[in-house]
Specification:
The complex is a heterodimer of chains A (265) and B (594). By secondary structure, chain A is of the alpha/beta class. Chain A folds into 2 domains: 76 residues, Beta Barrel (Elongation Factor Tu (Ef-tu), domain 3); 158 residues, Nucleotide-binding domain of ferredoxin-NADP reductase (FNR) module (Rossmann fold, 3-Layer(aba) Sandwich). In chain A, 30% of the residues lie in helices and 30% in strands. Chain A has a 7-stranded mixed beta sheet with strand order 9-8-7-6-10-11-14, with helices on both faces. A 5-stranded antiparallel beta sheet of chain A has the order 1-4-3-2-5. A two-stranded antiparallel ribbon of chain A has the order 12-13. In chain A, a hairpin with a 7-residue loop joins strand 2 and strand 3. In chain A, helix 5 runs parallel beside helix 6. The two termini of chain A are 29 Å apart. Chain B is an alpha/beta fold and 594 residues long. The chains are: A alpha/beta (265), B alpha/beta (594). Chains A and B meet through helix 1, strand 5, helix 8 and helix 9 of A and strand 14 and helix 15 of B. Bound molecules: flavin-adenine dinucleotide, iron/sulfur cluster and FE2/S2 (inorganic) cluster. Flavin-adenine dinucleotide (FAD) binds next to helix 11, helix 16, helix 18 and helix 19 of chain B.
């Protein structure tokens, strides 16, 4: 996998593998002192009884997960959580993924394809080295566009550029589905709104239980408070208050640094 | 018999003597000296006299020596200054006046007379009306951590009764023939029965007596609102303070556990039938234990990574130590109950799928969906639901951050909205994690505070401020979108509403600002639909709670039972346990017929 910071795990969790649907996630706790972190499932193998997660090392928990070896155990894996993505045969859909969001997108993309849609995938990364799952995506979609911020691979620039091109060129796009950094999803929603193309986003707010019990994952959708872990994680992107989500997600940045420092010490 | 008892009781070290008027003790204990101190009048002068703990030897080192063969004019309680001379009684040896004190022994309260003549060592007792004397022992307080110290730690607040205090408190019970306390108890514990066993110093038998009806006395003794259940009905409480039933319950349960006297009960022969319990709160645990004992094979499914429900993720360590909850859960495991953690029923398995594998199901999922008020600014950073705050603190042990990874929510000035146990728990947790000022904001008056009396009292002692008849209307944030203040409005109480409580109404132009860099919304919880989304055929009421047959706890789906907060709405631990027991009984009856 590209660079050491993006890591793939296949986890043996037969009951979850049997049930989990594209768009749903699991919550993981690595050890007794660990946090509960939500991770969307990138793929599953019900036959083998495994689920696949792909994550980027960003904080203490993900750093800890990197240190695990094949055959090690995670203390807790709970799921499936959240609502499954609504997938029907509607015609042409564009799937837009950024960063590790691409991993999550893979599961949903596969489902859209299986449902008989014409699937266009636009995936972006900072640089060539950070690109993940390109071949896997290529195998399941009808058209694939890759962008990198620095132009080291594919088109130079952001995913919004090819997306805008598609929106201008084709009028048969029935839906856009996007997962990635909040700012990217926000820009995409701003872009698609004037075109009146339904845009689904998959949100990743801070979560604890993932069962609708704490309200920590609350987001504002069309002015109403919703809990992403039970009402989502997919929402109509044109209704999401992204600024609020961004500021809520940055609440614990300092604590996360402290936590990482403590673990290094 | 009585003489014999007195002689015996003289040598008990825990013997205490009380003033018959003010019930204050005369005992003084110094390093190597135990004595009783009285005021007295002698030769028209005031003096202090000391008596031996057996009330027979006068200390001669008084300011004016009391001469051998001479008599005190008066004997006076140093606390209430009332005379202790009982003119109806006389010394049976020399005919002099006698003083009267009340002696408390393990089993009885005895008025005790002694001659005030220095040369005479007569003392004796009379079989007095026990009931009137009993009422004179004051309700015994539980020793507890000093408020100033405990405000900075998470250790349990009260230490609990010692054996002596428990015996004394047990003596206050009148052993009513028609005990009102039992009627007040939601599960009708045999209260005089267990208190009698305490008086007989059979503490572990007392604990077992409670367990006949209530599986978790160590928990209930700590968290039940006794003041509005059993103690409010106690006969002693009509004229005096009621018997401290909760404290006694807690004492015997702790004694049994600490002394390793808990016995694993016998399990009936296997019925070969299987029971699934959804949710491991107090209700679910009760059903699981009852059914396992009746010979069923029970599996509990719990959504979180620890069992116990609110007892684990909600109620903080300083009020209900987790070691106690874990002890009770371990007990269930020893009975053979299986616990599957991290299983969210509805997602990983539906009710129908469970019914394929189990003969009956109990739903005890609680009311876990937090309510918000929908105010402007409620999504600002550092505004939490009580559930999130308490889950972080208790379940994720954020108060041990950074040893534990989950960040601890913190603020210097904290506002907690609500007046129930949940609000008190949040406020007191915040104080313990270093907040400088904690304000409880509640829209009704002190009388309506739904929290347990003891919790409100403890919160006040620890220095938590109460803004009563006050309601928040909006939050303001700083440039990082973290909450910095709250606009409030004052309220007044109007006509009673449907719940019978007077409805709070806003007072116009009474708005004011309250600074807060953390706010916790503790206004209640509703039903979480996660389970029911996958069971559309389960009948719910208008408010989203499960409808059940009250006598059996059975839902609209055959073989599916429910109880606790998911039926009644957020209520109490004991009600959840009571509902569990009813359902277990009904389940057993139904399954036995198949
Ligand atoms: C902070 C706080 C303080 C309190 N203080 C007191 C007090 O002092 N005295 C008192 O009497 N009462 C108190 N209460 C109320 C009392 O705790 C509850 O009434 C009682 O716990 C209800 O018990 P229960 O068994 O119905 O459910 P809960 O204790 O709520 O347990 C339900 C369990 O089910 C699990 N669950 C939920 N959904 C699912 C699912 N789909 N699949 C699997 N598992 C699921 C939950 O994770 C939880 O563990 C307090 C409550 C709180 C929150
Ligand atoms: S009502 Fe009070 S005095 Fe009577 S049995 Fe109950 S606890 Fe004892
Ligand atoms: S994560 Fe707690 S309610 Fe969604």
């Amino acid at each position: 996998m590209a660079k050491e910071t993006i890591i793939r795990f296949d986890i043996e969790a037969p009951k979850i593998a049997l049930k989990i649907k594209p768009g749903q996630f699991v919550i993981i706790r690595v050890n007794e002192t660990g946090e509960r972190i939500p991770l969307t499932v990138a793929d599953k193998d019900a036959f083998e009884g495994t689920i696949t997660i792909i994550f980027q090392v960003v904080g203490k928990t993900t750093a800890l997960m990197r240190s695990l070896n094949e055959g090690d155990f995670l203390l807790d894996v709970v799921g499936p959580l959240g609502k499954a993505a609504e997938i029907e045969n509607i015609g042409t859909v564009i799937m837009v993924g950024g960063g590790t969001g691409v991993a999550i997108l893979y599961h949903v993309t596969k489902a859209f394809k299986d449902a008989g849609n014409h699937v266009i995938v636009i995936m972006g990364a900072k640089e060539k080295e950070m690109l993940i799952l390109e071949n896997e995506m290529k195998a399941i979609c009808d058209e694939l566009v890759v962008t990198t911020d620095d132009g080291s691979y594919g088109e130079k620039g952001f995913v919004t550029m090819p997306l805008e091109r598609y929106l201008n060129e084709r009028d048969d796009i029935k839906m856009i589905y996007t997962i990635g950094p909040i700012i990217m999803m926000k820009n995409i929603c701003n872009l698609t709104k004037p075109y009146n193309v339904p845009t689904m986003v998959s949100l990743n707010p801070i979560m604890i239980d993932g069962t609708g019990m704490c309200g920590g994952c609350r987001v504002k959708i069309g002015g109403k408070t919703k809990f992403s872990c039970v009402d989502g994680p997919d929402f109509d992107g044109h209704e999401v208050d992204f600024d609020e989500l961004m500021s809520r997600n940055s609440q614990y940045l300092q604590d996360e640094k402290d936590s990482l420092l403590y673990s290094i010490k | 018999m009585l003489e014999q008892e007195v002689r015996l009781l003289k040598y008990k070290t825990y013997l205490s003597y009380y003033c018959p008027h003010c019930s204050t003790t005369f005992n003084v204990e110094r390093q190597d000296e135990k004595s009783l101190i009285f005021n007295a009048a002698y030769k028209q002068q005031d003096l202090v006299v000391k008596l031996s703990p057996y009330l027979d030897v006068f200390d001669t080192k008084t300011s004016i020596p009391v001469e051998e063969g001479d008599m005190l004019d008066d004997l006076i309680c140093p606390h209430c200054k009332k005379s202790l001379i009982n003119h109806e009684e006389k010394c049976e040896k020399c005919g002099s006046k006698v003083g009267e004190v009340i002696v408390s022994t393990q089993a009885k309260l005895i008025p005790f007379y002694f001659c005030v003549n220095r040369g005479c060592d007569w003392h004796g007792i009379k079989k007095a009306d026990q009931k009137t004397i009993r009422r004179k022992i004051p309700r015994q307080t539980m020793p507890e951590q000093d408020p100033k110290i405990r405000a900075h730690n998470f250790k349990e607040v009260p230490y609990g009764y010692t054996s002596e205090l428990a015996l004394l408190e047990a003596d206050r019970c009148l052993q009513c023939k028609n005990p009102k306390c039992v009627e007040g108890c939601p599960v009708n514990i045999d209260i005089p029965g267990f208190i009698k066993l305490i008086s007989e110093e059979q503490f572990d038998a007392a604990a077992r007596k409670i367990k006949e009806t209530n599986l978790f006395p160590a928990v209930c003794g700590r968290v039940c609102p006794q003041e509005s259940q059993c103690e409010i009905k106690c006969i002693v409480g009509i004229k005096n303070e009621p018997v401290a039933i909760g404290r006694l319950e807690r004492f015997v349960a702790d004694y049994e556990r600490d002394m390793n006297l808990v016995e694993i009960v016998d399990i009936k022969k296997s019925t070969g039938k299987k029971i699934a319990v959804i949710g491991s709160g107090p209700g679910g645990l009760t059903v699981a234990a009852d059914m396992q004992i009746l010979g069923y094979d029970v599996t509990i499914f719990e959504a979180l990574h620890e069992a116990g429900g609110v007892l684990t993720y909600g109620i903080p360590e300083f009020r209900l130590p987790k070691s106690i909850v874990n002890f009770e859960i371990d007990y269930l495991v020893k009975l053979g109950v299986k616990i599957e953690l991290n299983h969210i029923i509805g997602n990983i398995l539906t009710l129908d799928e469970l019914l394929e594998h189990f003969d009956a199901i109990y739903i005890g999922v609680g009311a876990g969906l937090p309510w918000f008020m929908g105010l402007e600014g409620e999504s600002l950073g550092n505004v939490y639901s009580a559930n999130e705050y308490l889950t972080r603190m208790n379940l994720m042990k954020a108060y041990k951050f950074p040893e534990y990874d989950t960040p601890m929510p913190k603020g210097n000035k904290v506002a907690v909205i609500g007046g129930g146990n949940v609000a008190m728990d949040c406020a007191r947790s915040a104080l313990r994690s270093g907040s400088k000022e904690v304000n409880i904001v509640y829209r009704r008056s002190k009388k309506e505070l739904p929290a347990r009396e003891e919790e409100v009292h403890h919160a006040e002692q620890e220095g938590i401020n109460f803004h009563l008849l006050t309601s928040p209307i909006r939050y303001f944030g700083d440039r990082r979108n973290m909450v910095k203040s709250m606009e409030c409005i004052r309220m007044e109480l109007g006509e009673p509403d449907a719940s019978g409580r007077r409805r709070p109404l806003p007072l116009e132009n009474s708005n004011f600002m309250l600074e807060c860099d953390m706010a916790i919304v503790a206004i209640g919880n509703g039903p979480n639909p996660i389970l029911f989304n996958s069971a559309p055929d389960l009948k719910l009421n208008k408010r989203g709670y499960v409808e059940v047959n009250e006598e059996t706890g059975e839902t609209s789906k055959e073989f599916v039972y429910a109880g606790g907060d998911i039926v009644t709405g957020a209520a109490t631990v004991i009600l959840a346990m009571g509902a569990g027991r009813i359902a277990a009984r009904a389940m057993h009856e139904k399954l036995s017929k198949i």
